[in-house]
Amino acid sequence: MSAVNRGLRQASKQVRLTQRVSNLSCTRSARLQSAFRLLQNSSSASTCALPNTRTGSFSTMASLQSAAPGVTPSPAHHKGYDPEITDIADYVLNKNIDSELAFDTARWVFLDTLGCGLEGLRFKECTKLLGPTVPGTVVPNGPKVPGTPYQLDPINAAFNIGAMIRWLDYNDCWLAAEWGHPSDNLGAILAVADWITRTNKAGGNLANGKQFTVRDVLEGMIKAHEIQGCLALLNSYNKVGLDHVVLVKVASTAVVSKMLGLNEKQTADTITQAWVDGQSLRTYRHSPNTMSRKSWAAGDACQRAVNLALKVLKGEPGVPTVLSAPVWGFYDVLFKGKKFEFQRPYGSYVMENVLFKVSYPAEFHSQTAVEASEKIHAQLKAMGKSAADIKEVTIRTHEACIRIIDKQFKPMDNFADRDHCIQYMCSVMLVFGRLTAGDYTDGSEAATSELVESLRKKIKCVEDPQFTADYHDPALRTISNGLTVELNDGTFLDEVVVEAPLGHRLRREEAKPHILAKYKRHLEPHFSADKVEKLVALGQNPKELEAMSVDEYVDLYVNEKSEFVQ
Asked: Which SUPFAM superfamilies does its entry note (predicted)?
């Protein structure tokens, strides 16, 4: 029997089986026509192999069953792009950003993010992952990695910058149905802007000869923030087990496409490639698998974004219905059949409302709890007491906090466990009156403290539905925590509630001096006092900063003899 006939008979049998299950009547002729259409659409006519559809509800016949009687679904290449894709492409290429608040906020985010990256370089767990793939490689006109002597290709540079930015969980934050850190996208944006500018200054013609200024980078950040943030407002990726860095990859891909000079169709193609790319599982952020990948996952997303955009630049096509394709699309495979929901059109809302991590290098859902703990530490000291006198602590909190960082009895195996445990962070503050990045490292005073460990197990979280509602309210977006302490002698201290952390928009002006101090503090281990003052002053001069060529600005951060990079 020929391969074609065998395939035809197998497909015909499959159609009959599916139709019997569905109680559908059909003539033999119609069944054979359906089978033949399936055969024609098969990816391998020579073998005519069809997917096994006998188990569960997962069936390659789903698209036929959902179609109107007698109508054969069109192949993907005959369809238009998913509207979710074209909306992003249209926004990135055609939307003019005219919000001065967004640009001002972006400037603060830019400085803060670069500072966080420099601070990440102080940790060998981070720096061991950085640098060229082949030691000693220097890429002519390649982007430079701030704080290091490295000059790399744009893909690897995107990873390097993205990883160091995110390493300490200290850059900005966006909290909604999904969480994330939109300034992670700077890894891709800065690497590509620097590379294109250096190349074109050297006589190249990337992106039609474009030479980027810092203001161009700020605009790219605003748009990347908006894409990531709007996709997160009503859509929870963590509830289906996916990590939020998928949104970094999508946002960076879109913005980098524009930077490379791709047209609207090519930009859409690149965005589809980001969605079809394998997505990271959140398991590395949760027990029992919490580990350091959570600190370089954003860098990985940045490098994938640049890599995909460059492939489309070379002519690689897209996947038009990557989201909506029955059976094989993102919605059916990874999102339980649900389509994305949107609260608002793309603009500059996310950058204008983004959250800064100002006071503590702590997962953002804990920021207000740590601030409350600092107040309680001072109160105990004034009473002549200490954390050793605490019998129990109750944290009244919001649902997201409980889901992500409530780890009362989970062993603290590494720094990744500690910086995502609200009990550990509050305990350190209650015991020592501080919380620094060094308090998460193995062997540190905090990590080896018996008092911190015993107190951690006395801290329990309970959800307050109103706190959860306020967390999702577009007019508030607060991250409230309230701590009640019971002492060993039976005394209850008044509850200390903090609703909006210092980096919240409601406290933005109050936060700015602290953001600047944080930036300066992160510069100081890397550069001379004169260089630090120059960078701080430049950061406070928006007109001069925004007009500066991006390569010249990045050159200010080069450190040929960094003591932190081997």
From this structure: 2-methylcitrate dehydratase PrpD (SSF103378)
Query: Which ranges in 128-202 belong to alpha helices (H)?
Result: 154-166, 186-201
Q: How far apart are CA 389 and CA 519, in angstroms?
A: 36
The confidence band for 79, taking pLDDT boundaries of 50, 70 and 90, is low
Task: Give the HSE-up count for residue 84: Cα atoms under 13 Å, Cβ half-sphere.
Answer: 21
Q: d(Cα 219, Cα 248) in Å, to the nearest integer?
A: 16
Query: Cα dist. 459→261, 286, 312, 363, 411 in Å?
Result: 53, 19, 51, 17, 14
* Separation between Cα atoms, residue 85 and residue 296, nearest integer Å: 27
Q: If we measure between CA atoms, which residue out of 54, 10, 331, 353 comes closest to residue 175? A: 353
- Please give the Cα distance from 86 to 268 (Å, whole number): 6
Q: What is the largest CA-CA distance in the chain?
A: 92
Measured CA distances, 509 to 502, 505, 520 (Å): 9, 8, 18
CB 170, CB 192: distance < 8 Å: no
Separation between Cα atoms, residue 379 and residue 204, nearest integer Å: 63
Q: Is the peptide bond before 83 cis (omega within 30 degrees of 0)?
A: no
Task: Give the global pTM.
Answer: 0.79
State how far the Cα of 115 lies from the Cα of 535, in Å rounded to an integer.
11
pLDDT, tens digit (0-9, with 9 covering 90-100), for 230-287? 999 999 999 999 999 999 999 999 999 999 999 999 999 999 999 999 899 999 998 8
Can you read off the two tokens belonging to residue 265? 């169709």
Do 112 and 171 meet the contact criterion of CB atoms below 8 Å apart?
Answer: yes
- Closest by alpha carbon to 436, among 508, 379, 521, 512? 521
CA dist., res. 168 & res. 324, Å (int):
36
Q: How far apart are CA 111 and CA 516, in angstroms?
A: 8
Neighbouring-strand partners of residue 180: 174
Q: What is the DSSP letter of 324?
A: T
Q: How far apart are CA 320 and CA 551, in angstroms?
A: 35
DSSP H or E stretch at residue 403: helix 399-405
Residue 129: closest CA among 151, 105, 156:
156
SS (H, E, C) 184-213: HHHHHHHHHHHHHHHHHHCCCCHHHHCCCE
The CA angle 182-185-187, to the nearest 5 degrees, is: 140
Cα Rg of the chain (Å, integer): 26
Query: Tokens 């161009």 label which residue?
Result: 216
